[in-house]
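Lecture 7 notes: from sequence to structure.

We start with a single chain of 82 residues. Read the sequence below before looking at the structure.
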Amino acid sequence: MTTTTIRVTTAMRDLLQQLAQASGVSMQSVLEQALESYRRQTLLEATNAAYGALRTNVDAWNQLEDERLVWEQTLADGLEEL
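Now the structure, written as C-alpha cells:
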C-alpha cells in the first residue's frame, strides 16, 4: 500500500490522535472511517436533492411512480428468493 503525507492543523492532528487512542485503532483507520462516513453522507444528500428536484417535475415524478408500480408487480410473480 502506498502512502502520502497531507498537512493538517495541530488541533486536527491532536483530535485525530485522541479519537484513535479512545477507539484503540490507528489514526489512519480513524481518518479512513471518517472519510467513508463523509462520502456516504454527501452521497445521501445529493440523492435527496436529486429526488427533491425530480419531485418538482410532476410529469417526471409520475413516470417514476408508474415505473415503480410495474416493478412492484414482479414481487408477486411467485418466484422465490434464493
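DSSP finds three helices and no strands in the chain. Keep this in mind for problem set 3.
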